[in-house]
Amino acid sequence: SMKQFKLLSLYGGKEDIRVTQQAVNSKYKNYTGIIPTDGLYGREMNTALIQVLQAVEGFTPAEATGNFGNGTRSRLKTISEGTSEWVWLASVALTCNGYSLTPTSTWNNAIVSALYKFQAEHVIPVTGKVDPTTWMSLLTSKGDPNRSCVACDTRFEITDEFAECLKADGYRIVGRYLSEPDQKNTAEKDYFKALRTGELERIVSHGLQYFPIFQEYSTELRHFTAENGARHAKEAVASAKRLGVPPTVIYFAVDYDATNPEISSNILPYFKAVKENMHGGYRIGIYASRNICTRVSKAGYAVASFVSDMSTGFSGNLGFSIPSNWAFDQFHEIPGYKGKWDLDRVAYSGRFGAVGSVNHSTGNPQSKITYVAPPNPDTSRLTKIEKVIDLIQQLESVYDKWRKVYQKYAVVLEYHPLSVTQGVINYLAKAYMTNWKFAIAGAFADPFFIIFMEKEYPALKDKLDTYIGNKRDEVADISGGKNDIAHFAYTLYCYAYSNLAPDHWTGWAGDLATGMDDLHKYLQKYPSLDRMKTAYALIGSDSSAQSEYFKANHVSNKLGIRCNFTDFCDDADAIYLGMNLRNASDENLHTLSDMMTTYYSSITAQKRYTAYAQDGLDFSSFKALENSIKAKMYGCLEKILGFGLLARLAGESTDEERDACCIAMAHYLLAKSK
Asked: Where is the Rv2525c-like glycoside hydrolase-like domain (predicted)?
């Protein structure tokens, strides 16, 4: 037997998983047999967990096959509390999917927090409960085949009729093939899967987006050589340019269940050659099983994954977590869609935008557009920030008292107050910290101190709520800047104290991602607008000071501006003060208010906006700044740690729209920092 019964830590084995394997062998061996206790989550353990589920559901050992079929689905329960085998299995499944959790039979907040992250990462309804859709995503690669999705792929030409059917059924993105083998010797009407002339224009004209796939003989190991990789890269770029596909991610297919040795011997050299021969601004994506996608991406040969999760029998899917850089997830096939076409249903993470335009002529590039910064708002009537700093100083004294009396109010024995500075910032950010979408990347608000403030210091609480409540006023500084204190405090907290997400994702990157979504919505409502000029008009603007471009085109700001003047002020200030807090040798009672007093008494625009350099942005030239912004927004590591913030915040914005916003931000920061 090749089974291992000791922890294989050198191969990625984990003690928590080994303990789980031992528990399965102890309690469920009549269902699973004896499984390895090596600490590795693979095909055999995945099958065993499904058999454990079937045991919990009441099937007999003979009926518990490890196949997640209709019978298993019909007995799934939704759990959100209590102590049971169901809870234990859910916590185990989350652990096996890579979430830091100790398996337990008792429902707790750690399970809820992990569920929020898992559900958001897999783009399924975020409920904080283990519902049937979540069970299926936890234990099978394809998940719930009936869940909603906005993307699809097909080998069939997207005709006007097909496009309207897709839109009517809620699809917004379609994957299509750039080419096919022997295409030069095939009449266009006889193409099996390749894009036809004018098809991309037709897709876009119906309000759909698309993503390009390259696949040529990818079903056997011998197809994957370095020589083929080099040739495929050149052919993919040539096809993309011929069809008018702007620079974007092209997904190269591996429709083969390669084992780890085969990935090393063939798949990695193939993608290395693809990378070495990829030009024209196009980026490399991979279509493959979970394991292949992950290994190729970790090797640095692909930035995005299109996961073939529909292939549930692939060894590269069983027992493997979804790749951290997944953009598309193919999970269910509809043969004979509308009686005419075959269609694969595809989940979309939003990490990488699909394409929403076609380059009509490579010989006539768009003329350069001169950057015009959005106008500055009038801050003369706003409350000065010094008034809020005075309130913060009072809050620091109150929190110091709280640290001495908290045991009278906190009903949880494990509760301990934070330091004065951290506790005060947490309270100032309560409008964000009470929302799980923000809290999972930072921290949850302290409910006991919130109650303490309401009971013992209602006057101070009411004064502060003017600036940190759900309906709050902004404040101004001497340089003409503006701050939203709650937003500033949330970002400051994350820069100073949180390691749950890269700092910029809780600040400017999150704001820029929402700006990408805004740009998409404005262009959808006003299709005659220029994409780049609209990005310039939106990024860093203020709702009270409309851009000349919007005025000239009779565009209203009513769709919103979520990457705005105030956000850039908040984020810069949080970067600067957050670094100071991290580097402070010690804290006194009024560390925060003292730092804010010093900072805002001498604030200038140049001092504020050059603070972004402390967060890794390169101000040495415009191109360097643009590239450093894109690296932060699109980098693979950022997506691993960012809990899908780009995916959730950027909405259905296209690749081109996202790039336009990055360019606009680079222009904005350079203009402001002079």
From this structure: 165-328
- In the sheet with 482-483, reading across from the earlier edge strand, the strands are 383-384, 475-476, 482-483
- Short-list 326, 296, 324, CA closest to 308: 326
Integer Cα distance of 355 and 542 in angstroms: 28
Q: Give 322-343 as a DSSP string.
A: PPTTEEEEEEEEEEEETTTEEE
Q: What is the pLDDT of residues 607-623, one digit of tens each?
A: 999 999 999 999 989 99
Contacts of 361 (CB under 8 A, 6+ apart): none
Is 652 inside any structural domain?
Answer: yes
Query: Same domain for 549 and 640?
Result: yes
pLDDT per position as a tens digit, 358-413: 987 544 444 578 999 999 999 999 999 999 999 999 999 999 999 999 998 887 77
Residues 15 and 157 in one domain: no
The answer to the question of residue 389 being in a domain is: no
Q: Of 139, 169, 195, which closes a domain?
A: 139
pLDDT for 424-441, tens place per residue?
999 999 999 998 778 777
Residue 667 is encoded by which pair of tokens?
């222009």
Q: With contact defined as beta carbons under 8 Å apart, do 324 and 330 qualify? A: no
Same domain, 102 and 181: no
- The pTM assigned to this predicted structure is 0.78
Domain of 558, in residue numbers: 474-673
Assess if residue 667 is contained within a domain: yes
Of 308, 333, 338, 334, the C-alpha closest to 320 is 308
Q: Which of 348, 374, 405 is the last residue of a domain?
A: 348
